[in-house]
Every structure is written in C-alpha cells, then in structure tokens.
Amino acid sequence: MKALLIRDLTLAFRAGGGFGLALAFFLLVAVIVPLGVGPLTEILGRIAPGILWVGALLACLLSLDRMFALDYEDGSLDLLATSPMPMEGVVGVKALAHWLVTGLPLTALSPLLGLMLNLPGPGYPWLILSLLLGTPALSIIGAFGAALVVGVKRGGLLLSLLVLPLYLPTLIFGAEVVRRGALGLPVQTPLLLLAAITAGSLGLLPYAAAAAIRICLR
Amino acid sequence: MSDPQNWRAHRLVAENLSVARGGLAVLEGIDLNLASGAALVLRGVNGIGKTSLLRTLAGLQPPFVGVLQVPPEDLTYAGHADGLKSVLSVQENLSFWAQVAGQTGTGRAMAAMDLTTLAHRRAADLSAGQKRRLGLARLLVTGRWLWLLDEPTVSLDSASAALFVSVLRAHLGQGGSAVIASHIDLGLPEAEVMELTRYRALHDAPSRGGFDEAFT
Fold first, then answer.
1. pLDDT for the residue numbered B59
2. Strand B146-150 versus strand B177-181 pairing type
3. Do the chains contact at B81 and A75, CB–CB below 8 Å?
4. b/e per residue, B87-105, with b = 16+ CB within 10 A?
5. How many domains does chain A divide into?
6. CB-based burial of residue B158 (10 Å sphere; 0-12 exposed, 13-18 middle, 19+ buried)?
7. What is the value of ipTM here, to two decimals?
8. A204 in any annotated domain
9. How many whole angstroms separate alpha carbon A87 and alpha carbon A211?
C-alpha cells in the first residue's frame, strides 16, 4: 500500500502529473470573482465563504477523472486487481494520494485567498478547519465517482455530473461553518455535520468504489 | 506469501467451466487440470475467448458456469497492456510491482529479461519490444506460482522471444505453472496445447442473467 501511495505521489509530481493544476485553478477563481463582482468589499466579504468552498470543490473535481482512468488504460488496474492488495485498500490509497496533492495544499492556500476575497478576520480559523475536515470527503466521494466511470471513454463530464450532487452536503455545511465563523456565530452544528459526512464517506465509500471497479473490469 | 517450496502442491482445476464476454457465453465445458511445473498453451482464432478465459482464471471476472479452483493469491496476469507508467524509469516500474507483491529485489528480473542497461531509462522512451520485456520482467518480481499470459510474445523480436521462453522454462523448472494464449509457436514442446475451437459456445443458447449480469 505504501508503494502505491509513493508511486501515485511520484506520478503527481512528475511531468504531466497535474500537481499544481488544482491549486492554480483555485487561485484563479479567487482572482476572477472580485474582478467580476467589483471592488465592493462588503459584498465580497459576505460571499467569500461560498466562493472559497465552491472553488475548492471545483478544483478537487479537476483531477478526479485521472484517478483510475490512467491505471485502467495502461493495464495497471487489472494487475492491481490480481495482486494481493485488496481493491478497497487501492481505492483508499488513491483517495489519500488525491487528497495529499489537492485537498491539503488547497487548505494551506485558502487563508491567502480569503484575504483576496476580504473574508472577515474571525472566519480564517474556521475556513482552515472546515476545509481540513471537508476535503477528505471530497476526495473519497470523488474516488467513488471515478470508480463508477472507469472504462468509460472521456468519462470526465459524466464524472462531474455524478459527483457534484454528492458534494452538495459537504459544500453546504462547509460554507456554513465559514459563514457563521466569520460572523462570530456558533459553528458547532454545521461543523459536526461536516465531520459526520466525512467520517461516513470514509467508512463506506471505499467498499462501494471497489465493488464498482470490480464490475467495470469484467 | 508465495514460496517455490510450496509450489509442488499447487494445482489449477476447472470443471465444466464456461466463460462469458458481455453477458454471452463464448466458451463452455472446459475442464482443466494443471499441475505444478506444467504449461498450457491456448490456441484459437481471434475472438474465440482466449482473453476471456484468462481473465476468468485470473479472477477478474467470475466463471459464467462451472467450478474453478485456483490457489488463492498465487497467480499473476499479464494482459495486452503492460501496466507501465511512462514517466517512471524501468527500475521504478519494476520495483513498484515487486513491492505490491511483497517482494524485494529487481536485479535478477532485469538481468533475466536483458533490461539492466536500460534500468534508468523512462518507460516512455522504450521501444514497444522493450516495454513488453519490462512487462514480462514484472512476472519474475511478483514471485507467483501461476502465470496467466495473454500473447506474451507480441512485439518481441525472435531473440527476445527465445529469451522469454527460457525464462518461462526456468519458472516451470522451479515448479511454477503457466497458461499462455499464443498464436505463434513458442518453441515450448513440453507444453500441452489446448485448441479452444472445440469449446466454442453455441450462441443461440439462451444467455443467463442479461442486464443483471453485472450485479451477480
């Protein structure tokens, strides 16, 4: 499993691996929105939690279609399926690798983008915490979606259609945490719900994704 | 973990096996009994179901009908694609598969398939034949008893094909086994040849499952 994680991370950082793509996209969203909305700091501050969360979500979506498709195309997925590694473990490791190259850097970059969007001061710790709690769910839900479209040629668009609705609860509660945090309101309820979604997804979806891959490989 | 010491007791048994492609049986009534140290060559025209049979034996798809007994976790499959990452070097590709199989050491496999001089070259920069050699070297690093090979000599020149046959023969000599789908004569006279045309399924037979086939 460690070997697979190291290989996936190596591939992400080598040429054409796509590391930085999600980050650059996230950055662009935060640059473009103020240009579109205009220099009204009050409005920007109010919509910043939503924009940041939508940006993080779309950035996560960008690299999802490569998660299993590349391994499927070059035959690695067949070989992994016949290897002693359980498919659930493969899914978990791939989702972890995806999170390490997208979710974690996005979280680290988010305060800077919050600044660009004029996010009110009290919101920053909650922004980081909510992304830290929520992005693992984005990766594992995305892994499930990617597993469903393994073997579908150019399944990227289909993948987005499948995965975006599943992202909604995470988006709603994640953005709500930041919004309430920025206004100085209690954040406990959305935070707990966000954590519950992540915990539930991490617990259940590797099995669903592994089952989907086994069916696709037949 | 697979240990050549235990290979002598291994056996691949199939009884009345049918294999399907796209929910339709392509081959039926196959009986196999492959002992340790034996090789079986599958022959048949394109589309007869050689790949489907190999994938069934590999556990990638369930038997359509029949019973299949394979020693668990002691096989490795080599399909049309070699499972190589083009941005990784020969050495990196090979050691990844070795680690996945819980083995260490890639030097012997690289030497056996004449890849030592290419160890640090990226897989993207290999020729088709060199890629195939790397794909076949992977079989050695997995240390598995049963090799399921789908057209292993495609894009190999005659010298490399002969090299591979000698590697295969060494594997059989250790007590390993192999099932090989091949169109060409491998120069492996000791291998049993199975002509699949005899097992061709009648396509007007009712297909089982239909839409639900994916979920059984």
1. 87
2. parallel
3. yes
4. bbbbbbbbbbbbbbbebee
5. 1
6. exposed
7. 0.85
8. yes
9. 8
Asked if B81 lies within 8 A of A4 by C-beta distance, the reply is: no
The pLDDT tens digits of the residues spanning B104-142 come to: 878 888 888 888 898 899 998 999 999 999 999 999 888
Q: What is the pLDDT of residues A66-94, one digit of tens each?
A: 889 889 988 899 999 888 889 999 999 99
Give dist(CA A115, CA A66) in Å, integer: 31
Burial A68-88 (b: 16+ CB within 10 A, else e): bbebbebbbbbbbbbbbbebb
Sequence-ordered list of residues with C-beta below 8 angstroms from that of A184, at least 6 positions apart, any chain: A122
Q: State pLDDT tens for residues A149-195.
A: 998 888 888 999 999 999 999 999 999 999 999 999 999 999 999 99
- Does residue A17 sit within a domain? no
| B101/A83 CB distance under 8 A | yes
B100/chain A closest Cα distance in angstroms:
7
Helices (H), A14-122: 21-37, 41-62, 66-73, 76-81, 87-98, 104-116
Low-confidence ranges of chain B (pLDDT < 50): 1, 210, 214, 216
C-beta atoms of B100 and A4 within 8 A: yes
User: Does residue A167 sit within a domain?
Assistant: yes
Indicate the pTM of the whole model: 0.89
The whole domain housing A165 covers 25-34+42-217
What distance separates the 2 farthest-apart alpha carbons in chain A? 57
Chain B interface includes A165 (CB < 8 A): no
Domain for residue A1, yes or no? no
Residues 57-86 of chain A whose Cβ lies under 8 A from any Cβ of chain B: 73-76, 78-85
Q: Does B80 touch chain A (CB under 8 A)?
A: yes
